[in-house]
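Changelog note: in this version the structure field was regenerated for every chain. One regenerated record is shown below for reference.
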Amino acid sequence: MPRTLEPETSTLTERFERDGFAFTPPILPPDLVRRAVERMDAVIQGEYATGRAPCSRCWNPGDDPQKICKIDNAQVCDPVILELISHPEIGRWAAEATGARMVQVWSTQLLYKPPGGETAGNVGWHQDRQYWKYWDGEVFTAWLALCDIDSAIGPVTFVRGSHRWGELSGGDFFGGDLNVLRGKMTIPNGAAWEEVEGLLPAGAMSLHHRLTIHGSGPNRTLRPRRSFALHLRTEKSGRVASVPDGGYASHLDEPGYCPVIYRA
């Protein structure tokens, strides 16, 4: 059964290195969260304040309302969303967890999990690394909660210590049946599959390693689950030139697309 982390005195860095993930307290101003929610809804409906469309949409108005909505790089569509993903506290906490001297956002995902408890809103077990073959080195994810995240709303659930298991096959972000996907992932002998739910207040953040297995179940509440996933890199990262990036790592010199959010 998933569980939350017990209170402890270890540092953010120690938790990130030990577990493959770590949680922060609320770090984003409530007014910014409120404004970002408003603009998130506008982008979901296809309203782009800048006139620039996102690089990818996996949900459009008129699609199945029970399906999870994922829109990539919505920061190019709206200045409030760019303000959100550029907030310096995100960079400061990310640098504290990793020891980085530079943190840059290289891609984002707007994620809207609808209410109603349907499995179409699930995110299947996966490792981010399986989608990031074009990066070497230190790339990882920050997940921003734009509403209170409890067990009923379909929180991101992490498998503790799985970042030490190497890259596994069988993961699928869009796989709705978590039990089936779990059976496809062969974990090392002697390893324990221990799930930990990321229960966060609005404005808080989780950080996870590129190899940490994670996913989320259905939203059984009457309110949507709202979040942004920020894919980050540090000075210890590098592009793999021989692997196409699909445009996801091709805008590093554009501050309005890939802002640097921390420098030592």
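Spot check on this record: The radius of gyration is 17 Å. DSSP finds five helices and twelve strands in the chain.
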